[in-house]
């Protein structure tokens, strides 16, 4: 509705969906969107249906004024900030088939998470009607699930995956990094270090050895509780044992102090 006046054959619309607490990772999505489209919409909505831990939802950072300033400075055309009641006016059930990868990795640790993510992303697509939508590779599995949802509804839009933006010391930028204490912040570096180690040694060491080394590095770090470290097929997310296969990715998730972080790196 909001965008009907600007939507025409000549005007391409790109959507950058976010949950706010913006950082340079989000701005990189916006910049890519600006290169690809005439009008860029950024949505800020902390979506309750994708949270499996109520405390995580409650403490999710919401620095709205700062977010708006960042979007203005970055030249974003439209900010879409719906209220919860606007996106969920009546109680509703949502369940679509996202394929077997829904239940692996993040889906195993956050049960129902991708049903909530695809539910809200479909609502955002319906509201904005974009030609392109940009998502970060940091949430690797999320992009796979969104592509499944797009295929399920046969939506005519392009999903773009954008590279992971990191702090100078390698930590993947994430809104939840704000919860890390100074000690957690140092300990969290082991995640990108382990991923880089696997990347650097991928041609010379067997996958089984790389996995043991990475898990040992992470387990030896104080305050870090590993959920998973896997080397997997980038489509099925099933463990990969053949180094000559295409589309291999290493993915990690761990709790650092009280904060759960994820990261990944492409290997082939
Ligand atoms: N470091 C990053 N580099 C590139 N894209 C990112 C990065 N961090 C987040 N994104 C992308 O930004 C979009 C919005 O993500 P979101 O608002 O959840 O931020 P976030 O930093 O991932 O927060 P959190 O992981 O703590 O929920 C998603 O597509 C996400 O993949
Ligand atoms: C895609 C998204 C905005 C849906 O709430 C969220 O999962 C995120 O920020 O990655
Ligand atoms: N960036 C992914 C959204 C979430 O963790 O719920």
UniProtKB/TrEMBL annotation:
Residues noted as binding (R)-pantoate in the record, renumbered to the chain: 50, 142
Any Pfam family the entry gives: Pantoate_ligase
The keyword Cytoplasm is annotated on this UniProt entry: yes
Stored PANTHER family: CYTIDYLATE KINASE/PANTOATE-BETA-ALANINE LIGASE, PANTOATE--BETA-ALANINE LIGASE
Family designation: Belongs to the pantothenate synthetase family.
HAMAP family (UniProt xref): PanC (MF_00158)
Protein name: Pantothenate synthetase
Gene source species: Pedobacter duraquae
């Amino acid at each position: 509705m909001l965008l009907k006046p600007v939507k025409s054959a000549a005007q391409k619309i790109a959507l950058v969906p976010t949950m706010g607490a913006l950082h340079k990772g989000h701005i990189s999505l916006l910049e890519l969107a600006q290169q690809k489209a005439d009008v860029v919409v950024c949505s800020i909505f902390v979506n309750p249906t994708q949270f499996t831990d109520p405390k995580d939802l409650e403490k999710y950072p919401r620095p709205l004024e700062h977010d708006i300033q960042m979007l203005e400075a970055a030249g974003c055309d439209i900010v879409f900030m719906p209220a919860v009641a606007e996106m969920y006016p009546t109680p509703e059930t949502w369940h679509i088939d996202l394929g077997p990868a829904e239940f692996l990795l993040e889906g195993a640790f956050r049960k129902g998470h991708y049903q909530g993510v695809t539910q809200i992303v479909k609502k955002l697509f319906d509201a904005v009607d974009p030609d392109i939508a940009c998502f970060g590779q940091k949430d690797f599995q999320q992009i796979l699930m969104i592509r499944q949802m797009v295929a399920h509804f046969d939506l005519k839009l392009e999903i773009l995956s954008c590279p992971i933006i990191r702090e100078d010391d390698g930590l993947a930028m994430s809104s939840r990094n704000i919860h890390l204490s100074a000690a957690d912040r140092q300990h969290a570096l082991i995640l990108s270090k382990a991923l880089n180690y696997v990347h650097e040694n991928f041609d010379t060491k067997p996958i089984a050895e790389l996995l043991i080394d990475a898990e040992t590095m992470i387990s030896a770090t104080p305050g870090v509780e590993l959920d998973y470290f896997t080397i997997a097929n980038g489509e099925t997310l099933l463990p990969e044992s053949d180094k000559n296969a295409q589309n291999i990715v290493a993915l990690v998730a761990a709790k650092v102090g009280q904060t759960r972080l994820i990261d990944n790196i492409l290997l082939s």
